[in-house]
Write a structure and sequence with these properties.
Layout (H helix, E strand, L loop, with lengths): L1 E6 L9 E5 L4 H14 L8 H12 L2 E2 L9 E4 H6 L3 H9 L8 H8 L1 H14 L5 E7 L2 E10 L2 E9 L6
Parallel strand pairs: 1-4
Antiparallel strand pairs: 1-2, 2-3, 5-6, 6-7
Helix pairs in contact: 1-2, 1-5, 2-5
């Protein structure tokens, strides 16, 4: 298995994640990122650690230590995402090879912080427009609404009692 290091061009400090995979996991990592954008919020950028956890739990990769003797193959999630060809994107998103039961719930639970940060940024960019995101925390689904009005930032939370995870 090859050693891979997930990084992001805009990371502050070392936020890399290491894993071992039989095959190049770039498409798998991008699938997780693109699905998070589709399912939750278009501006979300999942952390390297969340993506690595998903690849380990759902796609057969294994955790790896940063101090391995092997030189890792770096995957920069920012550049991989921004330079992904549109035709390849369509093929990736319509392929049944990447679908995994439970992936959506996993990304939602693991990526809450990233999803909320993306929504906050969008609310600041679009004053007077409500930005809603659906989230989950171990016990309940809830919707967070962000609103930026006259340079004041407001946030509200509504629990969805209809949906529960086991």
């Amino acid at each position: 298995m090859n050693l891979y290091k997930l990084i992001h061009h805009y990371d502050i400090g070392d936020q890399s994640a290491y894993l071992r995979c039989h095959n190049d996991p770039t498409n798998l990592a991008l699938y997780c990122q693109f699905m998070a954008e589709k399912w939750f919020y278009e501006g979300v950028s999942l952390s390297n650690k969340v993506i690595a956890k998903a690849l380990i739990q759902y796609y057969g990769c294994t955790p790896a230590a940063a101090d391995s003797k092997d030189k890792p193959i770096e995957i920069d999630m920012h550049f991989a995402r921004e330079t992904y060809p549109p035709d390849s994107y369509k093929a990736l998103m319509t392929s049944n090879n990447y679908i995994r039961e439970g992936l959506k719930e996993f990304l939602l639970a693991e990526g809450n912080n990233e999803i909320m940060e993306a929504a906050k940024k969008k609310a600041i960019q679009l004053p007077n427009e409500e930005i809603k995101v659906e989230l989950y925390n171990d016990e309940e689904f809830f919707t967070v609404t962000y609103l930026s009005v006259l340079n004041e930032f407001k946030c509200s939370r509504t629990v969805d009692t209809k949906h529960k995870f086991p």
